[in-house]
Design a protein that fits this description.
472 residues, alpha/beta, UDP-n-acetylglucosamine1-carboxyvinyl-transferase, Chain, 2 domains, five-stranded mixed beta sheet
């Protein structure tokens, strides 16, 4: 595997995968940790911060609004909190390619005392923001986007907000987090009901920073309501960011699908709202071990139980552990319904696993993939076909007909980091050479992707490993 000019990535077939690896810090937690620290009173030290472009956009936006953040190293920040009182930025706040940055920041800015403008790159500027604009307006925010979908740039005139009761129309941690953050600045209580669980990092961090929300199951027991009290104050806490499960997913999937592979990933975030990939792989016949039990901090909670979040004493409010994957031949499965929310970021790599498995793998109820960094359904279907995979595309997903003989291909990333990395993994199983174009987007979430591959890959051609002096 080698890095070629003009942001392309060249991949060849590997003989085996194995060893031990630690992946970079969790992207979702890095965004939230720096944001919560900036809104808290006092000073927070963040270790394990992901220095990818997406998270750096959040950090720079907060600095532009008067928050002092010392960058001791790429992964260690010292954040001097503003106690929730940010300053009007002199220029538009650039969220780059990050929907998380834009949506969470919008919730905070809605409760500030100034007008701000959120912008992004071409991809982010095409993504619909109506789902946050409508409920924020219900809270009293003045917010405008472009067209009916309210795409970026977003202009937000902050001011007094009032808590609302709102049921999420889709399972979206970004929408939920946006409204919970706005609720901190609102009068009264903000109640958010979700009928399908989405990742719960924001709820955990509210508890960690001493502003615990109240959680209760809905009367039918099929959902939950999260309530935050307006005026709740955040207090600084040092925070350790564990490894990103969504980044580890590429290695977990590759090892699971390669008979004889033996890979261990340490210091990995194992939040139950993020690890749906493991359930999918086990259903496909994979062998995955979690030695011991992942460390679950005190005050942790099951999503479907009524629970009053208490202050959490651990330096990470997330379960952390080690995963060992032993490769074997897999078979197809179906992913749909409530399971989709738990694997939404992993669906591109699941499609790759489907191509490597025997039989059909069907992905349904995944319309959300149409409005990610790109249309991930169309993009993955096109790229899989380039490798020789038979794919049937559906409006809400795809069916991957596994077992085809794979041949290396030249494919585009569509400017989407997960498309690029998923295709790189498929290239490891394909005869000949695979070239992925426009791979600069990988830096948004996993800057060390290529280096980490060389830590665990045994190539058929030893000269490939010595190309960068990092492989085997």
């Amino acid at each position: 595997m080698s890095q070629a000019p003009a942001s392309t990535l060249t991949v060849r077939q590997v003989k085996q995968l194995g060893g031990e690896i630690t992946v970079p810090g969790d992207k979702s937690l890095s965004h939230r940790a720096v944001l919560f620290s900036a809104l808290a009173d006092g000073t927070t030290v963040i270790d394990g911060f992901l220095p990818g472009e997406d998270c750096v956009c959040t950090m720079r936006a907060l600095q532009a609004m008067g928050c002092t953040i010392e960058v001791e190293s790429k992964t260690r920040l010292i954040v001097h909190g503003t106690a929730g009182k940010l300053l009007a930025p002199l220029e538009p706040l650039d969220c780059g390619n990050s929907g998380t940055a834009m949506r969470l920041m919008a919730g905070v800015l809605a409760g500030q005392s100034f007008t701000s403008r959120l912008i992004g790159d071409a991809s982010l500027s095409s993504r619909p923001m109506k789902r946050i604009v409508d409920p924020l307006r219900q809270m009293g925010a003045k917010i405008e986007g472009k067209g009916e979908k309210h795409t970026a740039p977003l202009e937000i005139t902050g001011g007094p907000l009032t808590g609302i009761e709102y049921t999420l129309p889709v399972a979206s941690a970004q929408l939920k987090s946006c409204l919970l953050l706005a609720g901190l600045f609102a009068t009264g209580t903000t109640s958010i009901t979700e009928t399908t669980p989405s990742r719960d990092h924001t709820e955990r961090l509210l508890a960690f920073f001493h502003a615990p929300p109240v959680i209760a199951a809905t009367p039918d027991g099929k959902g939950r309501t999260i309530r935050v009290r307006g005026g709740s104050k955040l207090h600084a806490r040092d925070f350790n960011v564990p490894g990103d499960f969504s980044s580890a997913a590429f290695w977990i999937a590759a090892a699971a699908a390669l008979p004889g592979a033996d890979l261990t990933i340490t210091n990995l975030g194992l939040n139950g709202t993020r690890t749906g990939l493991l359930s999918v792989l086990l259903r496909m016949g994979a062998k995955v071990e979690v030695p011991g039990n992942p460390s679950e901090p005190s005050g942790a909670f099951p999503w479907d139980k009524g629970y009053i979040y208490e202050s959490i004493s651990d330096s990470s409010c997330e379960p952390v552990g080690t995963v060992r994957v032993l490769g074997r031949k897999l078979h197809g499965t179906k992913i749909s319904g409530a399971e989709i929310a738990n694997v939404i970021d992993e669906l591109p790599i699941i499609a790759v696993v489907g191509a490597l498995a025997d039989g059909d793998t069907e992905i349904r109820d995944a319309q959300e993939l149409r409005v990610k960094e790109t249309d991930r359904i169309a993009a993955m279907a096109k790229n899989l076909r380039a490798f020789g995979v038979d794919v049937t595309e559906h409006p809400d997903g795809m069916t991957i007909h596994g077992g085809a003989k794979l041949t290396g291909a030249r494919v585009g990333s569509f400017g989407d980091h997960r498309i690029a990395m998923s295709c790189a993994i498929l290239g490891l199983f394909s005869k000949g050479e695979t070239v992925i174009e426009e791979t600069g987007c990988i830096a948004t979430s996993y800057p060390s992707f290529e280096q980490d591959l060389h830590k665990i890959a045994y190539f058929h051609d030893p000269s490939l490993a010595s190309l960068l002096g990092a492989g085997r």
